[in-house]
């Protein structure tokens, strides 16, 4: 897992390494600038580069980047209208000047540049860019390739929200020391382009203060998720591989039941009134059909509750949520009931929820926009309802200790029925006995990877067909 941090936590780690352990700040700046320069040189080895620098340490990183790119043969020009105001930045500006990299006027710096580097403000931004920062940001928009150092100018490092006018999109963002939380949230996720983390040794900070070892969140890697895959016993019978009950309706019920089969599990029972069975078009013959009163905790290892169930199922949802002994995965119409009645999980019962931002907003009494404005805070606030998976670009999972961020997925998943497949898949992993957070994370990872394979324009049915090939590789 890759640690994800707020700007404040990154600064605390930086201070712990420099002040607590005595590592010179200029050494960390050198590591940061050299690592970022390597990322740029690797991708654009012959480019003319314009490096736009602010007066603080983000600008200091830019001076180091300019120096290394110059030493590697790039034609480099510097723009630093405010000079340098920190000791480390001044030292690196002086060193760059000794190589002939004197700051120049903005138009001259832009002339002929193929790559623009945004080293203007960094992670301390709280307000809309203005003055030199706004001038620099507009200038970057005129260049064919743009690279941001740590965080794009005009973006909040913790929430990913745009500060003022939307900045241009970047081809590459290079976070330094820690992956910043805002880069995993829209709209920054779409603005930042490719993300390449540069490690500068901030893990040392935990030697000074062990509390700094706990991040805001963890970005999942394939090896993490692969470790949670259920171990298959070659001698197991189907009833040993999990039995999922799906209490749902219509096409959503069909997709959720099929998603559960893809976990894979041994058995799936779709619970629906007999009168509704003829309308369950496309249901695989492998799915068992039964009346809703057939739910049995002695037989059914987990329950997927809610997709397509309709608005009149409130009492049934509340009863099942309260009384069913085994894990429940609530989605769609069941979430509406949880929101209306503010239902918390019964003691010692496993309950998981998979809302999108609008559903989460209803559960929390806020708008979808407010949920998206601080997704990590919204995820934390959903915890009273159960273990939460907050859907969206870079799905969040409420794991013990610190939440997990799923790295897979694509816009292809923004299609009708995709969430029903996810709920069934997660229910399948609950039935296989995984803890709730692991079941949600494994389902989200495979669901996202299948979406990537399916491509834009695919349907939920095609997503189901892509799932058998969407497996994480073990490290």
Summarize this entry quickly:
With 475 residues, the protein is α/β, with parallel strands linked by helices. It has two domains: 2-219, Rossmann fold, CATH 3.40.50; 222-469, UDP-N-acetylmuramoyl-L-alanine:D-glutamate ligase, CATH 3.40.1190.20. It is built from 18 helices and 18 strands.
Walk me through this protein's architecture:
The protein is of the alpha/beta class and 475 residues long. The chain has 2 domains: 218 residues, 3-Layer(aba) Sandwich (Rossmann fold), CATH 3.40.50.10260; 248 residues, Ribokinase (UDP-N-acetylmuramoyl-L-alanine:D-glutamate ligase, 3-Layer(aba) Sandwich), CATH 3.40.1190. It has 18 helices and 18 strands. Helix 10 crosses helix 16 and helix 17 crosses helix 18. The longest helix has 19 residues. The relative contact order is 0.10. The mean pLDDT is 95.
What labels describe this entry?
elongated; Rossmann fold; alpha/beta; single chain; 2 domains; six-stranded parallel beta sheet; 475 residues; UDP-N-acetylmuramoyl-L-alanine:D-glutamate ligase; 13% strand
Range of helix content: 25-40%
Q: Kindly report the name of the CATH homologous superfamily of the largest domain.
A: Ribokinase
Oligomer state equals: single chain
Question: Which structural class best describes the helix and strand composition?
Answer: alpha/beta
Number of helices: 18
How large a portion of the residues is in β-strands, by DSSP E? 5-15%
Distance from first to last alpha carbon: 12 Å
Please list the strands of the largest sheet in the order they lie side by side.
Answer: 7-1-9-18-17-16-15-14-13-10-11-12
CATH architecture heading of the largest domain: 3-Layer(aba) Sandwich
Q: Enter the CATH topology name of the largest domain.
A: UDP-N-acetylmuramoyl-L-alanine:D-glutamate ligase
Main sheet makeup: 12 strands, mixed
The tally of strands reads: 18
Shape summary: elongated
Unreliable sequence segments: none
């Amino acid at each position: 897992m890759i640690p994800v941090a707020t700007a404040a936590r990154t600064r605390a780690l930086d201070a712990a390494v420099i002040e607590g352990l005595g590592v010179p700040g200029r050494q960390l700046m050198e590591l940061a600038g050299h690592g970022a320069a390597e990322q740029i040189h690797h991708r654009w080895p012959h480019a003319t580069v314009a490096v736009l620098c602010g007066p603080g340490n983000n600008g200091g990183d830019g001076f180091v980047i300019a120096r290394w790119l110059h030493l590697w043969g790039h034609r480099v020009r510097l723009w630093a209208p405010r000079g340098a105001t920190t000791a480390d930045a001044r030292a690196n500006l002086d060193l760059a000047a000794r190589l002939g990299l004197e700051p120049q006027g903005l138009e001259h710096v832009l002339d002929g540049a193929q790559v623009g580097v945004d080293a203007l403000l960094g992670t301390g931004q709280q307000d809309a860019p203005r003055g030199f920062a706004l001038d620099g940001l507009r200038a970057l928009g005129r260049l064919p390739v743009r690279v941001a150092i740590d965080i794009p100018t005009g973006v909040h490092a913790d929430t990913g929200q745009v500060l003022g006018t939307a900045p241009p999109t970047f081809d590459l963002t290079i976070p330094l020391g820690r992956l910043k939380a805002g880069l995993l949230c829209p709209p920054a996720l779409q603005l930042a382009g490719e993300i390449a983390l540069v490690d500068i040794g901030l893990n040392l900070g935990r030697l000074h203060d062990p509390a700094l070892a706990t991040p805001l969140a963890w970005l999942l890697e394939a090896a993490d998720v692969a470790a949670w895959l259920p171990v298959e016993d070659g001698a197991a019978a189907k009833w040993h591989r999990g039995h999922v009950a799906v209490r749902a309706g219509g096409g959503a019920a069909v997709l959720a039941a099929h998603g559960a089969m893809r976990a894979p599990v041994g058995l799936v029972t779709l619970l629906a009134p007999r009168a509704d069975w003829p309308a369950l078009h496309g249901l695989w013959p492998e799915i068992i059909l039964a009346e809703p009163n057939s739910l049995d905790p002695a037989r059914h290892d987990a329950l997927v509750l809610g997709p397509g169930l309709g608005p009149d199922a409130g009492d049934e949802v509340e009863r099942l949520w309260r009384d069913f002994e085994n894990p429940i995965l609530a989605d769609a119409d069941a979430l509406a009931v949880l929101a209306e009645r503010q239902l918390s999980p019964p003691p010692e019962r496993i309950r998981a929820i998979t809302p999108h931002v609008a559903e989460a907003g209803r559960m929390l009494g806020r708008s979808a926009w407010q949920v998206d404005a601080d997704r990590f805070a919204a995820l934390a606030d959903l915890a009273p309802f159960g273990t939460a998976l907050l859907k969206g670009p870079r799905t969040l999972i409420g794991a013990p200790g610190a939440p997990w961020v799923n790295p897979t997925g694509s816009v292809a998943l923004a299609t009708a029925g995709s969430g029903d497949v996810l709920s069934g898949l997660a229910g399948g992993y609950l039935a296989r006995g995984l803890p709730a957070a692991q079941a949600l994370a494994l389902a989200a990872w495979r669901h996202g990877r299948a979406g990537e394979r399916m491509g834009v324009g695919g349907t939920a049915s095609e997503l189901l067909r892509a799932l058998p090939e969407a497996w994480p590789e073990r490290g």
